[in-house]
Design brief:
Number of helices: 5
Number of strands: 12
CATH topology of the largest domain: OB fold (Dihydrolipoamide Acetyltransferase, E2P)
Strand content: 15-25%
Order of helices and strands: EHEEHEEEHEEEEHEEH
CATH superfamily of the largest domain: bipa protein
Distance between the termini: 40 Å
Helix content: 10-25%
Largest sheet: 6 strands, mixed
CATH class of the largest domain: Mainly Beta
Radius of gyration: 21 Å
């Protein structure tokens, strides 16, 4: 069940339809507010609260109630772009992250230990992209007037466990430790992922 302004009906309906939700009731109060009732699988609610707050600009209220068990309603559609994938193991550095941020939003900060196949950001395009966030700037003997200016990174996007579970696609996993939450590809190496796309058997990493 959701409630909010009528202007948010379109974006909410589009997002909920991708989560296998079915509209069962709609009530208008005559003052521009609307109450929407949906039947939605529990897995479709994973990550929806954050999407709801964004889509309604914080002007809606959301509640849920278990109504029973139903047959599987189908896969939950993906509504995101591709990801940025670490190309090699090492420690993320400012220079490498700055290059990665030219292609999308990053999930990690300088000093973060990464490994090949780890998801380090969200691409601005639909395809996945391999990036080297451990790449250091080449040292030269020539100093320019701007050589000592610090690179300013956009703050890393931090995903909660619920957001991470909502974020991943079928070929991705969430790793949870007492210290961190990491995202990764199911198959870590580029070679393994290429073989999977070609339909060749690959042993799980």
């Amino acid at each position: 069940m959701t409630s909010g302004r009528e202007t948010y009906i379109g974006p909410l309906s589009e997002n909920l339809s991708k989560r296998q939700a079915k509209l069962t009731n709609m009530n208008h109060d005559g003052s521009g507010n609307v109450r929407l009732e949906y039947d939605i699988p529990t897995r479709g609610l994973i990550g929806f609260r954050n999407a709801f707050l964004t889509l309604t600009q914080g002007n809606g209220a959301l509640g849920s109630l278990l109504v029973g068990y139903q047959p599987w309603s189908g896969p939950i559609g993906s509504i995101r772009m591709g990801v940025l994938i670490a190309s090699e193991p090492g420690v993320a550095v400012t220079y490498g992250l700055n290059n990665a941020q030219e292609r999308g939003d990053t999930f990690i900060e300088p000093g973060t230990q990464v490994y090949e196949g780890m998801i380090v950001g969200l691409n601005t395009r639909p395809a996945d992209l391999v990036v080297n966030v451990c790449k250091e700037k080449k040292q030269t003997n020539v100093r320019s007037s701007t050589s000592d200016i610090a690179v300013r990174l956009t703050p890393a996007v931090k995903l909660s466990l619920e957001q991470s579970l909502d974020f991943i696609n079928a070929d991705e996993l969430v790793e949870v430790t007492p210290q961190s939450i990491r995202l990764r590809k199911r198959y870590l190496t580029q070679h393994e992922r290429s073989r999977m796309r070609e339909g060749q058997p690959v042993a799980a990493s």
